[in-house]
Amino acid sequence: MAPNVVSAGILAAECDCGQVHDADHVHEHALVVGGGGVAGAPRWQGLPWGYPKARDKGVMATVDDWLADRRRLDGAEGLWRVEDNLYDLTPFLDRHPGGREWLQLTRGTDITEVFFAHHVAETAEALLPKFLARPATAPRNSPFTFHRDGFYMQLRERVRKVLDDTPKPVLEAAKQRSKTIVDVLAASALLTCALAGYFRSFFVLGTVAGILVSVTASAAHNFFHQKHNWRRFYFELSFMSSREWMVSHALSHHIFPNTLQDLEVTFFEPFVSFLPYPSKHLVVRYLSWGYSVVMYAVLGHGQFGKRLLNLRLEPTDAVALAVPASVLLAGTPLLDAWLLWSWVLVVSSFYFGYQGLSAGHHHPDNYHEGDALGADHDFGLMQLAATSTCTGLRGRTWLLLTLTHFGDHRLHHMFPALDHAVLPLLEPALDEHLAQYRLPNVTITSWEALRGKYLQMARNRPNPRPAS
Predict the structure, then answer these.
(1) What are the residue boundaries of the Cytochrome b5 heme-binding domain, all occurrences included (predicted)?
(2) Per DSSP, what are the bridge partners of residue 7?
(3) Which residues contact 162 (CB under 8 A, 6 or more apart)?
(4) pLDDT above 70 (res 6)
(5) What sign for the dihedral angle of Cα 127, 133, 134, 137?
(6) What's the CA gap between 303 and 240, in Å, rounded?
(7) What's the CA gap between 152 and 380, in Å, rounded?
(8) Hey, how many other C-beta atoms are within 10 angstroms of the C-beta on 392?
(9) What dihedral angle (degrees, nearest 10) is formed by the CA atoms of 62, 68, 72, 75?
């Protein structure tokens, strides 16, 4: 469980608010801070949804634990839930344009957020009624809404119109630019690994190779959000798993950023805490600024170790062997090749974690669960509150930097299945939509995002006012 947080009422007991709650659906008052805190400060209070037990494992939680929690809490009854209806998509598995893996992973869960965020075209909504099984009997576990006249669904209509009005060759050319960039990055990473082995240049060429492996993985992340394609497996060069990241990043973090359901928050607890718990220990608040870099540096090794421990290795994990293979083909002795591979992975993991966690989420001005969110839990407004876009990381400026450093962050979160190269085409629609709702389109510098990450790690007072 989150450090310093107790769950009163999770087993049908009476909680702090004096009400009795059932085992699987914890009332918003059921998660309260236990002890400590600052006198007069707002009390940490979670959103009105069931508590994911996988959080109790912290860094040892797995994506399969999280999926099991979703199946326990979502009331999907072994089917696929969208809003308040259950659908049997089994006959559609092999016809799903995105590939059967997305449907296999989400069977038995509520896919409402995933469905609307990943299907901008009208086709999916037109097909869905054909697979209706029955109405759901349990209420939705998610507090986020998709009212047809609400902020997100209206923005989605604007985006759909832009895509429909853009000539198909323009869209395909944009997507091809992303493919070319990630192909060149992957080839450059492997070539530099070979050169590092040939010249025995561990700390110069080896470091460059590690950074290239890291940015290749970041660019490959663009592709595991999309329909099944082989370029997603460039991600495996980092010793991490695109299958795991389809869950922890695409299905968890992207859909529920900065909340108890965000595995990219869970995986660092209790050692690094991004949520504003009032009784957060001083060690976690400040010493984590130093030791967190060690956690970044072992991301690749650590995630492989967890997969090995839980017997969750996939055949595609073998893609990672392309790195030592390129070193060995350069004539490097076996021991030196192993040491160089280890160094490349440490550099790659460090760079991936350090810049990835500074890319536009963890800043005191962003929403983190425990902060006030506002009365309207519209999915799009939540995404706006929890994300930031860095000024230097916009696709219209430099696609290479955007692809490799998680750029165009707000648009990417709201429409993750769209290629990064397409997102710049949507910026005018977002600007127009925000103006209609009288909302600012705030950007921050990369330096402010980095500084904000550390301030957020230290923050222990929930924000009583909703983020703008």
Answers:
(1) 74-131
(2) 31
(3) 425, 426, 428, 429
(4) no
(5) negative
(6) 6
(7) 4
(8) 16
(9) 110
For helices 446-458 and 288-297, give the axis angle rounded to 10 degrees.
Answer: 110
pLDDT tens digits for range 93-120: 999 999 999 999 999 999 999 999 999 9
Instruction: Give phi and psi for 33, each to the nearest 5.
Output: -70, 135
pLDDT classification of 394: cutoffs 50, 70, 90: low
In 3D space, the residue among 140, 134, 145, 74 whose CA is nearest the CA of residue 107 turns out to be 74
3-state SS of the chain is CCCCEEECCCCCCECCCCCECCCCCCCCCCEEECCCCCCCCCCCECCCCCCCHHHHHHHHCCHHHHHHHHHHHCCCCCCEEECCEEECCHHHHHHCCCCHHHHHHHCCCECHHHHHHHCCCCHHHHHHHHHEEEECCCCCCCCCECCCCCHHHHHHHHHHHHHHHCCHHHHHHHHHHHHHHHHHHHHHHHHHHHHHHHCCCCCCHHHHHHHHHHHHHHHHHHHHCCCCCHHHHHHHHHCCCHHHHHHHHHHHHCCCCCCCCCHHHHCCCCCCCCCCCCCCCHHHHHHHHHHHHHHHHCHHHHHHHHHHHCCCCCHHHHHHHHHHHHHHHCCCCHHHHHHHHHHHHHHHHHHHHHHHCCCCCCCCCCCCECECCCCCCEHHHHHHHHCCEECCCCCCCCHHHHHHCCCCHHHHHHCCCCCCCCHHHHHHHHHHHHHHCCCCCCEECHHHHHHHHHHHHHCCCCCCCCCC
Distance, in Å, from the CA atom of 273 to the CA atom of 456, rounded to the nearest integer, reads 9
Q: How far apart are CA 424 and CA 394, in angstroms?
A: 7
List phi, psi (to 5°) of 444: -130, 160
Taking the C-alpha atoms of residue 152 and residue 31, their distance in angstroms, rounded to an integer, is 28
Written as one letter, the residue type at 143 is P
Q: What's the mean per-residue pLDDT of the chain?
A: 89
Q: Which amino acid is at 219?
A: A
Q: What would the pLDDT profile of 256-291 be if each residue is shown by its tens digit?
A: 999 999 999 999 999 999 999 998 999 999 999 999
Residue 92 in tokens:
């559609």
Q: Residue 361: is it exposed, middle or buried by C-beta count within 10 angstroms (0-12/13-18/19+)? A: buried
Whose tokens are 């659906």? That residue is 25
Instruction: Report yes or no on whether pTM surpasses 0.85.
Output: yes
Angle subtended by helix axes 168-198 and 322-329, to nearest 10: 50
* CA quadruple 155, 160, 166, 171: dihedral, nearest 10: 100
Block residue for tokens 């323009």:
170
Cβ pair 192, 209 in contact under 8 A: yes
